[in-house]
Amino acid sequence: MFKAVAGYYKDNERLRLLVKIIAVWLISRAVMLLMVPVMNLIADEPHQWLYYMNPWDAEWYKGIVENGYQPPKSSGMASWAFFPLYPLVCMAVRLVTMGSIDTYAVGMTVSNICIIIAVYYAVKYADIELDMKKYNKKTVEDIIIFLMLAGPFAVYYGAMYTEALFILCVILCFYNSARHNYMAAGIAAAMASATRIVGCMLVFVLITYMFMETCAECRAKHNSEMKDNKEAGIIDKCMLTEEAGILIAGNISLASVIRTFIKNVIKEPKKLVAIMISPLGIFIYMNYLRYFCGDSWAFYHVQRAWRTQKMFPVIGVLFKSCTGQLSAASGVKTLNGIILGWLCVITLMLYAAMIRKKHYALGIFGIIVLLIPLTSSVMSTLRFIMGSFVIYIGVAEIIAGCNRYVRYGIITLLSIVEIVVISAWYFWDGLLM
C-alpha cells in the first residue's frame, strides 16, 4: 500500500508540486501565527491573530461582507472605493457556513485558498514564459513558491485583502493567454476587473499575446515562402540563415503584421469576445454605482477622501516622494514616501528590463498597473507591485541566474525581510497599507 502511494506520488508531477506548495504555505502561516505571542510581549495590549492580520482595508471588506455597501462616513470615505468580487466570494462562504465563522476568518480562508491555487499556476506559467534551457526548472519552481508564500510581503495573501484573489485572476489570465486559450484568459481578466480597478488593464495582456502569436504565424509563413523560393532558385538578394532547422529571412513589415492581427481578431470570434469581456467586471460595477449612488465613477472620486495633496501625475509624484517633499495631505509619511518612491523607480526599471528580455506582456502590464496609482500618490503602491504578479517572474529570473550559494544567501535575506514585514504589518505600519 505504502509503495503504491509512494510510486503514485513519485510519478505524479502535479501532486508533488501541490504538496510542496502546501508544505511551504503551512510553514509560512505557522511563522505568522507563532509571531503573535512575540508581538503581544511588546504591544500595549495583547491581541488575537485575526486582529493582527487584518488592519486598514480589511475593516472595510468586513463591513461590506456583513452589511453591503453603505453611505459615506463623515470623513467622506466610502466603502464603494473597494471593488465587489472579493466581498461577494466572502459573502458566499459566509452564507454556506451560516455565519458561524468570524468574518475575518472567512476572508482569510478565501485569501489562503486563492494564493495556493495562484502559486500552482504561477509555476506552470513560469515553465512556459522562462527559458528552461537556461534555467533549472526545479530551481525556478522553488524560487517562485518561496517568493509568493514566504518571501517579502507574502503576508498580504493571508489577510482579508483582495491581493490573493486578484493575483489569482492575473496569473490565470497570463497562463491561459500564453497557451492561446483566450476565452479563459478573458474571463479571468473580467474577474480581475471586478476585484481591483487595474484589473481591466489585463486586456493588454491578451492583445500582446495575440499580437505575438500573429508575429510568429507571419514569420513562419514568410520563412516557408523564402524556403520555397530558395529551392526554386528565385532568391538572390535575401540572406538566409538556418537555426535549429528553421529558415529565417529578413524583417517582416510591421504594417503587414498589424493588418494580419486585425484580420485574425475579426475572423476569430473567440478572440474578439475575449478582448471585449476583459473589462466587463468594472463595467458591471460602474452600472451598479450609478444605480446605488448616482455616480458611475464613485469608486474613483471617493479616493480624494484618502489623500488631498495634488501633484503632477507620475513624474511629480515620484519626484516629491523620492526627495521627501510629501505633505501630510498625501496620507504618506515622509520616510515611507522616500522608500516607496525609490522602490517604484527600481520596479519600473525592472519591468523595462523584462521587456528588453522579450517578456512583453509581463513588462507592459507591470508598467501600466504601477503608473495608474502613481498618477496621484505612492500610497499602496507596494500592494499594486506585488499584486500585479509581474515582479515575481522578474525577481525569480534574476535569482535563478545566480549560483547556488548566492541563491541561498538571497533567499535567507528575503526570509528575514518577510519576518520584519510581518512585524510591521502586525503593528499597522503605514508603509504597507
UniProtKB/TrEMBL annotation:
It is found in: Endoplasmic reticulum membrane. It is a multi-pass membrane protein. This is Glycosyltransferase RgtA/B/C/D-like domain-containing protein. The chain crosses the membrane at residues 21-43, 104-123, 143-175, 187-212, 274-292, 335-353, 360-378, 384-401, 408-428. Keywords: Endoplasmic reticulum, Glycosyltransferase, GPI-anchor biosynthesis, Membrane, Transferase, Transmembrane, Transmembrane helix. It comes from the Bacteria. Pathway: Glycolipid biosynthesis; glycosylphosphatidylinositol-anchor biosynthesis.
